[in-house]
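Hi Y.,

Following your request, here is the sequence exactly as I used it, all 363 residues.
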Amino acid sequence: MNTTTILILSGKFGMGHSSAALALEERLKQRLPGARVAAADLLEQALGPASAGVYQAFAALARRGGPAFNRLYRAMDRQGKAAPVPARQLFLKTIHRLAETTKPQAVISTLPLCSQLAAEYKKRTGSQFLLVSCVTDISCHSEWIAPGTDLYCAASAQTKQALIQAGVSPEKILITGVPVRPSFRVPAEGERQARRILVMGGGLGLMPEDEDFYLRLAAIPGAQVVAVTGRNQQLRRRLQELKPNVQALGFVENVAEQMGRSDLMISKPGGATLFEAVASGLPLLAIRPNLEQEKRNAAFLAEERIGLILPSDPTPMAWAAEDLLLQPAALERMRDNMARLRRQASLEGLFCWLERQGMAQAS
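Below is the corresponding structure, written out as tokens. Let me know if you'd prefer a different format.
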């Protein structure tokens, strides 16, 4: 029997898309060991070193241009023809090269741009690969929806409903959550440290900048504060001066371990971060977001009672964390609600769907 090949396309417009792609790659290799799984960053493949400049520009827009970013997001989130893609022909040629090299039976996209371009390539060439779009936020931007998509992986029941309202057949939608790596898990008894507060800002380190905020957290009785600043080295250097009250880390590889050891997390509510917290059973205090999709993620967090949305000012933020840490029963209720979400959303449905389409069977 020919080896099944699955190609995963993504990009680093925010680390959540690429995190989901890496998680899918790892999970698929475990679940379908007979398949060959390859992941590719479409921009890096098409633009080479120039892709770094594109990603830096996006990061600057996300960091400083909240209103401008949100206007662009809303303008593109409309029914009808997809927004024009710069260098469209170059991207389509890149997909052609990847398709010719890997000969995929299935293409999975974790980025709207990749979904649109893969669908167009499939239509133009008559390619027979199955196209799966994995929506990596609670909200479903219209750019995710493309003719020729065979399956949509929805982050939640709300995401599924949004897809249906946009005209997608319910039979083409599975609720899978946002894919996270297997290392994110509920810790065994004794692994979690009481009142250990993990403060994170994603790869860009978008987190509170006020040193007094971290000192207020450290003043909570029995609290341990760990701040993971990502690539925000300037913030890390400032927080390192707060030792021994605050442990400041930069970019770390052991995020799953950090979550598993913590009692509470404070972070921006990106899609990947949100579902990593759910997988870890770690209640999340969401830093009040500026970006449109994160606002919708935060609303989901509050509706599902798996965390709280923090006020904007540093002092009330620290008070909210203290109030929650001093209520173990409230934290436990949030963990119970996370367990309910884990039961409702699973990648197992995607794996079974791929097997039914003739993908390599698990050994």
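Residues 15-31 form the longest helix (17 residues).

Thanks again,
Q.
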